[in-house]
């Protein structure tokens, strides 16, 4: 499973011009399930993500997690994180999970996030989404988890 975390002051996602997910300060999570990923992998990623100390403390050190600062999570599915660009000029997405597996793992991740964290918003799986954000820092962290 691949994720890109962006520490944001605010973020939102629109589908067909309507805002369907929006947070103030927190993490924008771009999430991609890969072939072979399981719910166990998704759970490991979420646990790490919620504890990752990338928010500043009083001294300005990155020493607080999204849970510590009561920040929001905006979780957006993005299969293109599995892109392989080694072969030519057109990316290959063969390592991305099949759509039905990706949808299942995304739904599992979101359900677990909502059970563990008070503010969780989402995009819409497989929709044409427009994501807006104000990156705070900027702080952008790539993550990869496997079984």
Overall description:
The chain has 147 residues and is of the alpha/beta class. It has one domain (2-144): D-tyrosyl-trna(Tyr) Deacylase, Chain: A (3-Layer(bba) Sandwich). The protein is 21% helix and 39% strand. It contains 2 helices and 8 strands, in the order βββαβββαββ. It has helices spanning 39-51, 99-116; strands at 2-15, 18-23, 26-32, 55-56, 62-64, 72-77, 120-122, 129-144. Strands 1, 2, 3, 6, 7 and 8 form a 6-stranded mixed β-sheet that branches. A two-stranded antiparallel ribbon has the order 4-5. A hairpin with a 2-residue loop joins strand 1 and strand 2. Helix 1 crosses helix 2. The mean pLDDT is 97.
Helix/strand class = alpha/beta
CATH architecture: 3-Layer(bba) Sandwich
What is the CATH topology descriptor? D-tyrosyl-trna(Tyr) Deacylase, Chain: A
* Envelope shape: globular
Order of helices and strands: EEEHEEEHEE
Q: N-to-C terminal Cα separation, in Å?
A: 9 Å
Low-confidence stretches: none
Give the name of the CATH superfamily. Answer: D-tyrosyl-tRNA(Tyr) deacylase
Give the overall average pLDDT.
97
Task: List the quaternary state of the chains.
Answer: single chain
Helix share, percent = 10-25%
The first-level CATH class is given as Alpha Beta
The number of helical segments is 2
CA gyration radius, whole angstroms: 15 Å
Please state roughly what percent of the residues sit in beta strands, choosing from under 5%, 5-15%, 15-25%, 25-35%, 35-45% or over 45%: 35-45%
- The tally of beta strands, per DSSP, is 8
